[in-house]
Amino acid sequence: MRNGAIDERSLPEASAPHGTRANSVLRPIVFGANDGLVSNLALVMGVAGATSEPGIIVLAGVAGLIAGAFSMGVGEYISVQSQRELLDYQVAFQRKQLREAPEQERAILAGLYLERGFSPEETAQFVNAVFDEPDHAVRLLIFEEVGLDARSIGSPLSAAVGSFASFTAGAFVPLLPYLLADGAGAFFASLLVSLLALALLGIGIAALTRRPAWYGALRQVLLGGVAAAVTYAVGLWVGIGVG
Predict the structure, then answer these.
(1) Which of these, 198, 144, 147, 224, lies nearest to 30 by C-alpha position?
(2) For 18-25, which contacts have Cβ atoms below 8 Å and span 24 or more sequence positions?
């Protein structure tokens, strides 16, 4: 299996649900934790490269945690709420179009399904059935024309809270050793537990995206390790220059 390709043997039964609604909640949680872990690991390593003073490292880590958590929470709320507001606008506009230009909307929907290989008879039967229920027609036309679907958007508040909490948890991992110790021991402990957490998170992301566990773990460790190494090198260079 190359490049983390999906093995069909690992897929659920064909009758199993897709889990779209669950994924709309899991996505901000999983990726919030990833962002918190990677960004604060890089921040802590960068500051540690510039100075060995534990108070400064802790201060930078706490500041990164708080600022990042609020940024993630607010960003997720605005992102999801904006999608919902756009959906509300599109619903109102689509209903207006159905009232004032129903034949135009019928033609648009029919054209889409004719392009997909439906026969004219099948298309006419399908479009007539859809337009018998105006709410169904609105939802389908919005999905086909704009690509918006309420089922995949989720709750802005849930996304914000989940993202805030998961970012905080992830960002706390590289900071914890510096709250318990200092010096080289805290540095290597921070790096080690962060890489371990990245591997576990990668396994979680792989489960969410149906990729092999080894692929998710290796990808997270490599990317997080590169970020930590680069910021540490920059911090070391800055620290030497300032010193």
Answers:
(1) 198
(2) 20/151, 20/152, 21/151, 21/152, 21/154, 23/152, 23/208, 24/151, 24/152, 24/153, 24/154, 24/159, 25/154, 25/155, 25/158, 25/159, 25/162
Q: What is the pLDDT along the chain (243 residues), one digit of tens a residue?
A: 455 555 555 555 554 555 555 555 667 778 889 999 999 999 999 999 998 899 999 999 999 999 999 999 999 999 989 999 999 999 999 999 999 998 999 999 999 999 999 999 999 999 999 999 988 899 999 998 888 887 778 889 988 999 999 999 999 999 999 999 988 999 999 999 999 999 999 998 888 778 899 999 999 999 999 999 999 999 988 876 544
- Contact call for residues 58 and 175 (beta carbons, < 8 A): yes
Owner of token pair 């034949």: 103
pTM over 0.85: no
DSSP state of 210: T
CA atoms within 13 A on the CB side of 64: 26
* C-alpha pair distances (Å), 141 with each of 45, 112, 121, 138, 231: 50, 10, 20, 5, 48
Residue 163, phi then psi, degrees to nearest 5: -65, -45
DSSP string, 188-207: HHHHHHHHHHHHHHHHHHHH
Tokens 């490269």 locate to 49
Tokens coding 159:
């996304």
Query: 190 — phi, psi (to 5°)?
Result: -60, -45
